[in-house]
Write a structure and sequence with these properties.
alpha+beta, 5-stranded mixed sheet, 12 helices, binds adenosine-5'-diphosphate
Length: 435
C-alpha cells in the first residue's frame, strides 16, 4: 500500500513536471524549462534532507519535527520519531529489569560473580565484597589472581563443574566456602560462593560424635563380651540360661560389628583423601577374600569362580580395598540361596581402566532401591538384613573406599535373578605387570 505522503510527493512532482512542460511549450524553450524545473526539484529535495538531518542532530529526536518537512519527508521523520520512542521505552524497560536483577543480586546472601570467557571479572554483588574482599579496582582482573587457592585455580581451569568445590577461606581459615560454577553464553561463567561454615561445623560435630560414641562403647562392650563368653563356656548351665547367653552372644557380636563399621566409616571420612598408596595385586587379594567368604558361607556351600588377569594391580590402600571388595562378596553370599555360584571377574578396557565385577544369582534388588543402597543403614527390607546379620553400613563403607580411590560403584540387579556390583577404577589407578 502506497502511503499518503508518498502519493502527495508523486502528485506534486507530476504537477511540477506538467507546469514546467507547459511553460516550456508556450515559451518555446521546452528543454531549458524542463531542466530548470528538475534542478529546482533536486534543490528542494536537498533542502528537505538538510532539514531532516538538522532535526535528527539538533533536536536529538526529542521534539517532533518542524513543519519544514513535507509529504514523504514528514512521514520519514514521523517514522524515525516513532522508532526512537519505541526504542527509548524498550531501553527504559530493560534498564528496569537490569536494576531489578542487580537489586536481587545485592539482596542475595551468597556471593555472585560474573566472569567472561577469558576469566576476567565483569561484575559481582555486594556479598562478594564482604565474603571475598573484592574492591572496585578488581574489575577486569583475572579471577584466579584474586582467588589464588591452588584447588580453586585447578577447579576453575579444568572446566568440570558438575560437583561444587569446598574450600577453607584463605584469609579466614575457620571459614568454609562452597563454590558453584555455571557456564552460560559463549564461555562466560557465573560463580556462586556460599559460606557453609555452619553446615561444615555441624557435619564435623556429627562425625566427631559418632566416632567418640563408637569409641567409648567399645571398651564396655569388650568387657561384656568377655563375661558372656566366660559364662557361656560354663558347664551344666540350665537350658534357660544357655539360650539366653547364646542370644546375648549373638547381639554382642552384632553390636561389635556395628561399632567396628561405624569406626571404619568415621576413619574413612576424617582421614585425608588418600593416606597410603601401594601396588595392590588383585588376584591374591581376591583369593583371600574368597577364602573368608567360604568360611562365611559355611554349610550353605556357595561356589566361587574367579577370573581375570593375574597381572592386574591397583594403586591404593590394601586394607581399605580388602574391606570394600570383601563387603560386596560377603553380601553376595548373604543374599544368595545356598549352593549358588558367585562370580568375581576383573577386566580392563582399551583405555587402561579396570573393573571388578561381583555377580551373584541371589534374591536381587528392586530397581527403586538401587539409588539409595549406599546410604548408611538403608535396607531393602529389615527382615532380610537381620537374617543376614548385616549392619547396614557395608555398602556405605564400600562407596567411601572407592571414592577415596577415584573409583565408582555401579549396581545392576533383577529381583529374583541376581545382582552385579561393579567397581570401576580409572586408568591412573591401574598397573599391569609381571609380578
Ligand atoms: P547389610 O549389612 O545390611 O548387608 P549393606 O550396606 O551391605 O548392609 O547393604 C545394604 C542393603 O543392600 C542390604 O540390606 C541388602 O538388602 C541389599 N543388598 C546388598 N547386597 C546385595 C546383594 N548382593 N543382593 C541382594 N541385596 C543386596
Amino acid at each position: 500500500m502506497i502511503r499518503r505522503g508518498f502519493q502527495t510527493e508523486l502528485r506534486w512532482f507530476l504537477a511540477w513536471l506538467f507546469t514546467s512542460t507547459l511553460v516550456g511549450y508556450l515559451s518555446g524553450f521546452f528543454l531549458l524549462s524542463l531542466l530548470v524545473a528538475l534542478c529546482l526539484y533536486v534543490l528542494w529535495i536537498f533542502r528537505q534532507i538538510y532539514s531532516l538531518e538538522s532535526w535528527i542532530l539538533q533536536a536529538r529526536l526529542r521534539t517532533p519535527p518542524d513543519n519544514d518537512l513535507r509529504s514523504i519527508w514528514g512521514d520519514i521523520a514521523d517514522d524515525v520519531m516513532l522508532m526512537h520512542t519505541r526504542h527509548e521505552k524498550e531501553k527504559a524497560r530493560l534498564q528496569t529489569v537490569v536494576s531489578r536483577v542487580q537489586e536481587m543480586a545485592t539482596a542475595l546472601k551468597d556471593s555472585v560473580i560474573l566472569v567472561d570467557k577469558r576469566g576476567d571479572i565483569e561484575w559481582w554483588n555486594q556479598a562478594a565484597e564482604q565474603l571475598l574482599g573484592f574492591q572496585s579496582v578488581d574489575r577486569g582482573h583475572q579471577i584466579t589472581n584474586l582467588i589464588r587457592h591452588p584447588r580453586f585455580v585447578h577447579y576453575f581451569d579444568k572446566g568440570n563443574y558438575k560437583e561444587p568445590l569446598a574450600l577453607a577461606d584463605l584469609r579466614r581459615q575457620y571459614q568454609q566456602l562452597e563454590f558453584h560454577i555455571h557456564t552460560f553464553g559463549q564461555g562466560d561463567r557465573l560463580i556462586v560462593v556460599r559460606d557453609v561454615t555452619r553446615l561444615y561445623k555441624l557435619e564435623q560435630m556429627r562425625k566427631d560424635f559418632v566416632a567418640n560414641v563408637s569409641h567409648e562403647l567399645r571398651t564396655p562392650l569388650t568387657v561384656i563380651r568377655g563375661y558372656v563368653e566366660t559364662l557361656a563356656d560354663t558347664d551344666d548351665l540350665p537350658p534357660r540360661w544357655s539360650n539366653a547367653l547364646e542370644q546375648m552372644q549373638q547381639q554382642v557380636q552384632r553390636m561389635t560389628g556395628l561399632i567396628n563399621d561405624l569406626l571404619t566409616l568415621s576413619r574413612l571420612e576424617t582421614d585425608s583423601r588418600q593416606t597410603h598408596s601401594e601396588k595392590v595385586q588383585l588376584t591374591p587379594l581376591l583369593n583371600t577374600i574368597v577364602d573368608d567368604a567360604r568360611t562365611v558361607s559355611g554349610e550353605r556351600n556357595h561356589t566361587f569362580t574367579l577370573s581375570g588377569s593375574d597381572r592386574l594391580a591397583l594403586v591404593g590402600n590394601e586394607r581399605e580395598l580388602r574391606s570394600a571388595l570383601s563387603n560386596l562378596v560377603v553380601n553376595a553370599v548373604n543374599y544368595s540361596p545356598p549352593a549358588t555360584n558367585i562370580a568375581i571377574a576383573c577386566e580392563t578396557d582399551s583405555n587402561g581402566a579396570a573393573v571388578v565385577h561381583i555377580r551373584d544369582n541371589g534374591i536381587g534388588i528392586d530397581p527403586r532401591h538401587i539409588p539409595r543402597l549406599t546410604e548408611r543403614f538403608y535396607r531393602v527390607d529389615s527382615g532380610r538384613s537381620a537374617a543376614s546379620g548385616g549392619t547396614g553400613l557395608g555398602l556405605a563403607i564400600t562407596k567411601h573406599v572407592l571414592y577415596r580411590h577415584d573409583a565408582e560403584l555401579r549396581i545392576s540387579s533383577k529381583p529374583g535373578k541376581g545382582s552385579q556390583f561393579s567397581c570401576h577404577f580409572p586408568a591412573r589407578r591401574v598397573v599391569i605387570g609381571d609380578w
